[in-house]
């Protein structure tokens, strides 16, 4: 028996006697339709064009052979906790940060209460809150396209239970500095939860390394969400997490998938990504160069844009963004329309490879008749 196991362990997957016939024959004819035409410039979802780090790919491939096993999040939580220097009971990992943007309103607002957020920000959390008829106070961004914390504070009522910030913000790419958010936190009633979505935190770093997690360590009533989808290039694999004080995490756990939302492969890929600083730096450089390229091009074309800290940026166009987006899509360049955030004259463009950025600008020039 021992020798059978030892010899079976070295066989290539297709040679196992019990394997499904289609895998054995290598004749799977099914083609995957990714929903975009061949060769499309996919600059609409703020994805990392470099993809996962080589180390993550290697570990994910290994993990695929364990696809039939359920995952345990034990090691992931342990390593994430040590990475962020918090205790393990302050972390919950799940199926992208979307899992937490969706369950936070169910956890904390289902019995009433109001939510304050910005009109031109990521919509998943407030849209979920709308489903359970939470009253939302939508505050416009200020004239620098950043969260207007003074107006948000003025919108507080005795019923306010949660405030949702996105820092840096999607779609505008603008960011608030640590001290500004810390001051805001200090001014809030203690029972209000400040949810800070830090999906793009790797691109806006405080000189002293402080962020929303620092506020949690300082004792503020803050939830921070993070994702492996952006900086780590694992969007399609789905892994995100939240950090908060243990009592908040315990409440969120009731509504979440718990470790059932994490697939075997991304669990391994996530762990490898945390270690690959080089790959992360390479992506940051690509983003920095891409942003400079777009700024130069927009300046010479006379197009206004919003200076960005993130791997995407917004540009003002001379058509409604709905029309401009459609015209670009017809030429296989995919971007987002500002209408989705009540900014109808702006397009949001994700930064891609240099060739993609070039194609995007050239196509935009044609579409806008510049
Ligand atoms: C600000 C923000 N938060 C959360 C998400 C969702 O990310 P995830 O892939 O972790 O669910 C996105 C995705 O674009 C985002 O832009």
Helix-strand layout with pairing:
Layout: H1 2-8, H2 21-25, E1 41-42, H3 54-64, H4 74-84, E2 91-94, H5 98-108, E3 114-118, H6 124-131, E4 135-139, H7 149-154, E5 160-166, H8 178-186, E6 193-197, H9 212-217, E7 222-227, E8 240-243, H10 246-255, H11 264-275, H12 277-301, E9 305-306, E10 312-316, H13 321-330, E11 333-334, E12 336-337, E13 346-350, H14 354-367
The site of pyridoxal-5'-phosphate (PLP) has 13 residues, from loops.
General description of the model:
The protein is an alpha/beta fold. Helices cover 39% and strands 15% of the residues. It has 14 helices and 13 strands. Helix 3 (54-64) runs antiparallel to helix 11 (264-275) and helix 12 runs parallel beside helix 14. The longest helix has 25 residues, at 277-301. 43% of the residues are buried. Residues 1-8 have low confidence and may be disordered. Bound molecules: pyridoxal-5'-phosphate. Pyridoxal-5'-phosphate (PLP) is lined by residues 46, 96-98, 122, 166, 170, 197, 199, 227, 229, 235, 240.
Labels describing this entry:
370 residues, alpha/beta, Aspartate Aminotransferase, domain 2, Aspartate Aminotransferase, domain 1, 2 domains, seven-stranded mixed beta sheet, four-stranded antiparallel beta sheet, 15% strand, globular, binds pyridoxal-5'-phosphate
């Amino acid at each position: 028996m021992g020798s059978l196991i030892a010899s079976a362990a070295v066989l290539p997957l297709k040679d196992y006697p019990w394997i499904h016939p289609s895998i054995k024959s290598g004749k799977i004819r099914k083609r995957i339709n990714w929903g975009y035409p061949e060769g499309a410039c996919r600059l609409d979802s703020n994805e990392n064009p470099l993809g996962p780090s080589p180390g993550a790919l290697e570990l994910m491939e290994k993990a695929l052979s364990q696809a039939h096993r359920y995952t345990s999040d034990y090691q992931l939580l342990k390593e994430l906790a040590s990475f962020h220097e918090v205790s393990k009971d302050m972390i919950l990992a799940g199926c992208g940060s979307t899992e937490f943007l969706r369950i936070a309103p169910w956890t904390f607002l289902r019995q009433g209460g109001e939510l304050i957020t910005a009109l031109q920000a990521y919509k998943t959390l407030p849209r979920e809150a709308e489903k359970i008829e939470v009253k939302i106070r939508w505050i416009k961004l200020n004239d620098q396209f950043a969260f207007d914390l003074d107006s948000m504070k003025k919108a507080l009522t005795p019923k306010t239970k949660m405030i949702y910030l996105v820092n840096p913000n999607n779609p505008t790419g603008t960011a608030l500095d640590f001290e500004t958010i810390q001051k805001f936190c200090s001014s809030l009633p203690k029972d209000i939860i400040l949810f800070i979505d830090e999906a793009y935190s790797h691109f806006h770093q405080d000189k002293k390394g402080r962020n929303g997690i620092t506020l949690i360590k300082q004792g503020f009533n803050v939830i921070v969400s993070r994702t492996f989808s952006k900086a780590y290039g694992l969007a399609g694999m789905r892994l995100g997490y939240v950090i908060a004080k243990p009592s908040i995490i315990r409440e969120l756990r009731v509504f979440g998938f718990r470790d059932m939302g994490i697939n075997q492969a991304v669990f391994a890929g996530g762990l490898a990504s945390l270690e690959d600083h080089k790959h992360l730096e390479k992506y940051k450089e690509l983003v920095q160069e891409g942003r400079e390229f777009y700024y130069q091009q927009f300046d010479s074309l006379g197009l206004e844009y919003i200076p960005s800290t993130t791997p995407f940026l917004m540009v003002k166009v001379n058509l409604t963004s709905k029309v401009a987006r459609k015209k670009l899509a017809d030429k296989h360049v995919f971007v987002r329309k500002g209408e989705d955030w009540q900014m109808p004259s702006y397009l949001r463009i994700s930064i891609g490879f240099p060739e993609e950025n070039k194609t995007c600008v050239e196509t935009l020039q044609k579409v806008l008749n510049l």
